[in-house]
Amino acid sequence: MKILVDADAFPNALKEILLRAVLKRCITTIFIANKNISIPDVEHISMEIVSLGVDVADNRIAELVEVEDLVITADIPLADRVVAKGALALDPRGTIYDEENVKYLLAMRNLMDELRNSGEITGGPSAIDAKTVRAFADGLNKILSRK
Q1: pLDDT averaged over consecutive 10-residue blocks of the chain (147 residues)?
Q2: In terms of C-beta density within 10 A (0-12 exposed, 13-18 middle, 19 or more buried), how is residue 70 classed?
Q3: Which domain does 69 fall in, by range?
């Protein structure tokens, strides 16, 4: 198992939780973004910088992911691609995407996107708070405990 992180918008508060977990378990972890992200200088943790562009990081993650890997992303279409390859995805808000829920969550995301585009709904997700940090930590722990 390796962990791939869609790191462009990954919150620092959650990065600390993730790093503690992967350092403790020596899990290969790759942060993928279009800019440099500060990570520890440890053999099994790396950073891959991709070019700017729509879905460039997502496409690289989809290319690298293998069965039983974990991808951390808030991007539900990417999560769908990951699950289709036999891996799991974890949202920074703690939702675990798997075969049982990803299609439903993708449909809900598409509906909400349509409602936002039509002006029916405005705004986005709330800020990361202590409850969200706990939910992410719990989801990560649940996945890592399976391995």
Answers
A1: 94 95 97 94 96 93 97 93 95 91 75 72 72 96 90
A2: buried
A3: 2-146
Name the 3-class secondary structure at 146: helix
Chain centroid to Cα 79, Å, comes to 8
Residue 57's identity, in one-letter code, is: A
Given a contact cutoff of 8 angstroms between Cβ atoms, the answer to whether 50 and 60 are in contact is yes
Which helix H or strand E contains 70, and what residues bound it?
strand 70-72
CA distance to 101, 105, 107, 134, per residue, from 31 (Å): 25, 24, 27, 21
Question: Rounded to an integer, what distance in angstroms lies between the CA atom of residue 47 and that of residue 5?
Answer: 9
Q: What is the CATH number of the domain that holds 116?
A: 3.40.50
Q: Dihedral sign for Cα 27, 28, 33, 38, please.
A: positive
**Residue among 24, 49, 39 nearest 141 (CA):** 24
Please name the residues in contact with 81: beta carbons below 8 A apart, sequence gap of 6 or more. 58, 62, 65
When divided into structural domains, the chain yields a total of: 1
